[in-house]
Please model this.
Amino acid sequence: MEGIKIVLDGGFLFLFNFLPDINTIGLEPSIGFLHEIAPSKTPLVYDLQELFRYVIDYSVIQILEYGLKKSDFITTENYHIRLRPETAKRLIETIKENFNQRYLYKGKKHTLENIMFENITEFSKFISDNSKKLEFTIPEIMIKRNDDIETRERILSIDPEERKKLKINKSTLWYQQKKIKEGKQIKVYEKTRVKI
Model:
């Protein structure tokens, strides 16, 4: 359970650093609306981060689906548990991949990064009285996959004998098993899905 919290914290730290510099947009980061005002901290950044936390949640779910092991974490000299560098890298790549997907926003396709910047700019205009209306436009995340955990486990369990019986191409099975073991997403075509 603590491992999940550590992965989420890592994701939220990435999001915190991923947010555009709100000073350049004309906002004061020490004045929050949802989080307590604190001159030495940045509660406004935490407030704005809330709009896109779902991307981190989804990214962590993706990481968890591929299975986290005890070996994905390290314990520091102070007994703090941290992500191993390769696990942190996998998390960051997954988050970036999700933020780089394109979504329809104001009639055009934009990345979530651009949409985040636009929403924060709209917020800045609203609180500085340059706009009378505040409407955050946050797209739903697109989930394009058909490799649920049961399917992945089933593919991993297929041995050479069973592969022959199921008439699954040797290289197809090898490639899918390799990608699953690497923690990557796979595409399962219908002709393979019906066989397994």
